[in-house]
Design brief:
The chain is of the alpha/beta class. It has ten helices and seven strands. Strand 5, helix 5 and strand 6 form a beta-alpha-beta unit.
Length: 261
């Protein structure tokens, strides 16, 4: 695959899993375009990648919860670059009683997780289809496989990503574009996240993952054309085997412990 002229686009690239995706792609000598919110040290990170791995790096700072921003971003990408990899990693979680959530809070999660992912994919797909070989990787979650109280909107948004990815994978069979979805559990993105997850007890600790390992494995499996990437098979098996009437109250209790402690 000729990767010297074309680029990989990574959203949510300034920290956590997105940052790990960017590093792993650069290590493979793939040029990258990094997208994140403003004021996330994206310029410095881009410079580091350029110097360390001698690849081309561009960055673009914007708020993906605003549709107009998404359209401006994709217009710039299509005008300026050949793109052969798209990693839709940007996403928002959140743990709240639904009655205490603001309308903005709900709307932002849906805009970033559902609308931005769908629109970016839709707008960049003609560009990807022009390449001899291209890949889309959407980041879903273990939460896609069970509703959870106190996280009502987030798992529903990740179920959408899972379903959307599987449908698009089927639709694009026979084209140059391969679509995959990864379903990680919680990740050690920072100290606060680790503490919060550990408060959930057994369920939280079972799914806690290292972002670099998740990124490295996901990219490896993407290039092997694995359409559903499972990075923690034990917890995935538990989620698949347990009926919803068992896992829903169990997981809700774990999250309740987190918000009450």
């Amino acid at each position: 695959m000729e990767t010297k002229k074309s680029y990989a686009v990574v959203t949510g690239a300034s920290q956590g899993l997105g940052k790990a995706f960017a590093e792993n792609l650069a290590k493979k000598n793939i040029n990258v375009i990094l997208i994140s919110l403003p004021n996330q040290n994206l310029k410095e990170f881009s410079q580091d990648l350029k110097e360390l791995y001698e690849v081309k790096v561009h960055y673009y700072e914007t708020d993906l919860s605003v549709n107009e921003n998404v359209m401006k971003l994709t217009e710039w990408l299509n005008r300026s670059f050949d793109i052969h990899i798209l990693i839709n990693n940007a996403g928002l979680g959140g743990t709240k009683k639904f009655t205490e959530a603001t309308a903005d809070y709900i709307n932002t999660i849906l805009q970033v997780n559902v609308a931005a992912t769908s629109l970016i994919t839709h707008q960049l797909l003609p560009n990807l289809l022009k390449q001899p070989e291209a890949y889309i990787l959407n980041v879903s979650s273990m939460a896609a496989f069970s509703p959870i109280g106190f996280k009502t909107v987030y798992p529903a948004s990740k179920s959408f990503i899972y379903s959307f990815s599987r449908g698009l994978h089927e639709e694009l069979k026979g084209t140059s574009v391969f679509v995959s979805v990864v379903n990680p559990g919680a990740m050690k993105t920072n100290t606060d996240v680790c503490k919060r997850i550990e408060k959930q007890g057994f369920w939280g600790k079972l799914t806690l993952l290292n972002p670099d390992k998740v990124a490295s494995y996901s990219i490896h499996q993407l290039f092997k054309k694995d359409s559903v990437i499972m990075v923690n098979p034990i917890s995935w098996l538990i989620m698949k085997l347990l009926p919803v009437w068992i896992k829903l109250p169990l997981m809700t209790q774990a999250i309740k412990r987190e918000i009450e402690s």
